[in-house]
Amino acid sequence: MSARAVSALVLGGFLIAGLAACDSGTSTSQPPVGPPTATTTPPVTTTTPPVAVTHAAGCPVSADTLLKVVTDKYGRIPGLELRDVQCYQDYAIAGRFAARSDSEVATFHYVSGSWRYFTGGSGGYCEGVPENVKKHFRTMGYGGCD
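Below the sequence we write its predicted structure tokens.
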């Protein structure tokens, strides 16, 4: 036999011995090999906490709702419209525009489940409004809300 053949036989012997050692009949802690089983992992769900709502009971409010309050108090005013409505802690403020008149600001208060006209005009339209609400309205573009 050639040296090459002897080397192949020795190498083959080591492989057979190695395989026999793997299947020596001794028990191991690994589970028996069998067909793969399906494992289900519950889906990961992430929940975000609810965002705190800072609106009061009357907020938000639409311009149409506030316009009805004005017409209930003063009657129908031709061409009257409210713009840039801001609502904060049961108070609302809006620019009041009517045909053939100067623009003014109207302030409303939500009391006992309904909106009421609070005050308005070209100045002093936040008189009687709580300070924190005035401050909010000033940051929303109503700089004259003193």
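The radius of gyration is 41 Å.
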